[in-house]
Amino acid sequence: MRRTLSAALMLLTGVALAQSPNSTLPSPRVNSVFPCGGQVGKSFEVNVRGTELDEPQGLTFSHRGITAKVIVTPEPATKKGEPAKAANKSVPANEAKFTITIAKDVPPGTHEVRFVGQFGVSNPRAFVVGTRPEQNETEPNSDVPEAQKIELGSVVNGVISATTDVDYFIFTGRKGQRILAHCAASSIDSRSRPFVELFASDGASRLGINRNDTGNDALCDVTLPADAQYYLRISEFAYTAGGEDYFYRLSVSDGPWLDAIYPPMIEAGKIATVTLIGRNLKDGKPAGSIDGRPLQAVTTTITAPKDSLGFAGLAMLPQTAGLLDGFAASPLDLNARPLFFATAPVVLETQEPNDTIDKSQAVPTPVELAGCIFVRNDRDAYRFTAKRGEPVMIELFAERIGTTLDAVLSLHGPDGKEIAANAAFMDDDPEALHPTSFFNRTTDPAPFRFTPTVDGVYTVTVSARDSNANFGPRTIYRLRIVPPQPDFRVVVMPRNRDLPSGVTVTSSGETAIDVFVQRLDGFSGPVTATIENLPAGVTAKPAMIGTDERWGLLVLNGGDVKDAETMAKVVATATIRGKLVTRAAQSASITWDVLGSQNAATIARLDRGLLIATRKADKRPYRISAKLDKATIKGSDGKERPAKQPFEVKAGEKINVPVVIEWQGGGARPNVVNLNMEPTSLNQNNRSPIAVNNGRPLPVAKDKNEAVMVVEAKNNTAPGYYNVNLIGETKVNMSIEAGGKQKKDFTVLAYAAPFSITVLPTTLAKLSQTNATVKLGKSTPLTVRVERLFDFEGEYKVRIAFPEKCGLQARDAVIPAGSNEVKIEVDCISDAKPGRVNATIEATALFDDKYKATSEAKAVITITK
What we know:
Elements: H1 2-10, E1 29-34, E2 37-39, E3 43-51, E4 58-61, E5 66-71, E6 95-102, E7 109-117, E8 120-121, E9 125-130, E10 134-136, E11 148-149, E12 154-159, E13 166-173, E14 178-184, E15 194-199, E16 206-210, E17 218-223, E18 228-236, E19 247-253, E20 257-262, E21 265-266, E22 271-279, E23 285-290, E24 293-303, E25 311-312, E26 326-329, E27 337-341, E28 346-348, E29 361-362, E30 367-372, E31 380-386, E32 392-397, E33 407-412, E34 428-429, E35 442-445, E36 448-450, E37 456-464, E38 476-482, E39 487-494, E40 503-506, E41 510-520, E42 527-532, E43 538-539, E44 543-545, E45 551-558, E46 564-576, E47 579-584, E48 586-592, E49 603-606, E50 610-615, E51 622-626, E52 632-634, E53 640-642, E54 647-650, E55 654-663, E56 673-677, E57 690-692, E58 698-700, E59 706-713, E60 720-724, E61 726-738, E62 740-751, E63 755-760, E64 765-767, E65 770-775, E66 779-788, E67 796-801, E68 808-810, E69 813-815, E70 821-828, E71 835-847, E72 851-864
Parallel strand pairs: 2-9, 10-12, 11-13, 21-27, 25-26, 28-30, 29-31, 39-48, 40-50, 54-63, 65-72
Antiparallel strand pairs: 1-3, 3-6, 4-7, 5-6, 7-8, 7-9, 12-19, 13-18, 14-17, 14-19, 15-16, 15-18, 20-22, 22-24, 23-24, 26-27, 30-38, 31-37, 32-36, 32-38, 33-37, 34-35, 39-41, 41-45, 42-44, 42-46, 43-45, 46-47, 46-50, 48-49, 51-55, 52-53, 52-55, 55-59, 56-58, 56-61, 57-59, 60-63, 61-62, 64-66, ...
């Protein structure tokens, strides 16, 4: 359904963005680069289209071997004999031309290109380097008589220029040739959803069709019936969209094609034997079919890189796969496919049938299983041994590794009964890092932390909602059954939640970068992100993404900067189980907006790096700052006290923080400034940990320069560390240089330096009341059980407090980390008074090894003779 919804939303965006909204400051945005690739060792002209492409300075590529020169197009002379004038720059430019040269040593594959101009650096666009001859589509070619002649083994760069546009191509083929016509679209940042048809020489007998083979890319697969000429027809599916953003790259050949690699994961630094599944594979053995077309399989070995963090060599991964670890593999010089790093020894599905519990395949743990929904309505069951109280992570990967399966899990206990309490956790994962800009929600089941209640053999079964129609050798999955391995991954993006954007920092202004944190296997601790290799004149304090928070902001402050472009790097650190863990952040960007409005999920992907442009410009009109030294804390008793830094509060308390607005624009401030807090999560589990001004913007009148923001730790806030990012927003009528001057209203954001809040624990456990009976002069075991709160995993020191002279005593005990109970021997002296004794059980824990929290419960001990 998610994929269908995204496709439906795309129908509403048939017209490309002609201009950037007036509400944002100028920022170059590239919609299309045509052609979006070329042959290695060649030079050719490209046309770049988008918005705010003023005063082009060049293009920057992810590989230094690709270079570009600006083509200056002068205006024609106004009078006979008068020399041509320079191009008019009085209005924002939406088009620029360049000559691109691809050096002979540039590796084939998908690289990236960005526009560099007056307003900084743009978003990236895919740029493909190939080894085959290339040509551009030429019009007219909208019918069979106008078909454009192409050769097998070549590439055509084309555009679906209008909703009704159709492109015909003609080529010569031989009987028995298996032709693969691949039309790249979503894999090269295009909006297009190409529909590819192959016709016989009469132009009417259709031999093959395809769309959405992988994403929106099409792959038409036909074995030719005779020596003849054949026609390829390219159109936009359902004829609902078209324009400059609907470009494609069509490659037609009888060469090999790689569809999948099995298993889809490999342990870092190891050599593994894998099966390549594809078409036209030399010496390949039969391996099933896809859409009735046979596939072949070839066995080979692959050596995995030692570095198992991040994703190397493949920039085009979508959000769903963007935070997995792996690398781009192109064995036997075939087209690249992703391989993912396993976190445990890899085991293959080897037993069929294994559809039921009694026929399940036994597997060791920890393990990563590779399997396949090979036939219609296939189910695969695996059994593993687990011990009481020892948690296990169960995680299934399908959509995230590129498979179209809508996968589901079921879990059965040693008695063969389904563990009903877990059923809700074994289907689609509802979580996403961000509701719009990095929407990585998936149809895979959410990772599930399972704690067995008894020792025994458990069975997990993999199936798919769509297995009645979606099955075969490409429907591969990856199943992880391991002890919890708390960790995190980080992705950074320009803070533009709606549209493709780059990062540009100007003099005396702030620019923010989103930092998203994917939390793995229950890790909930704070993460600190630091940016390295900043451009000269730019500073940035580390950003903290607090306890269980999903995102934060890195605020870049511009000082005395020069016009330049610099590749920066973000490194994140956190303490996990007492050890400092460092992770390099992946960079990502929005590819396309979906609805062209706020609060709609965009299409985004990983990119090649965090490129920051600096531009010397006039000061931003205003800045905001939080006066932390003047802050006060209002306790639950209603009394205020001075706030010492770092701020420490209990749940339910509030911090009053003065915020000052410094107007730099000259004259009086023209509009209200709205102050707000950048949210840091989607409020999973109904948590709303920290709120500013009760979640509403705080308007500051244009004749005021100060306001007090009320920062509140809600009553349900978990103990931990939280970051507060204050943002100002107002409209300013500004002049922007563009050869001449243009003046209009812009929404200008300002960011205060972030500050942190520590929420102190009041309790870290819930104890249940306990009763016991003890005889005079004897001992009895008293079982103390705790329900761990706020994901606390440390130890509890337990003591029982008895009334004086009751005749009972007990030694202190410890509930160790990972356990939930302890037995304490209660001793009774021989001359104690029989009857009921009311005691108090205390469990004390240290949060972060320094903040103490004590929980209490009653215990009734009955003394008998």
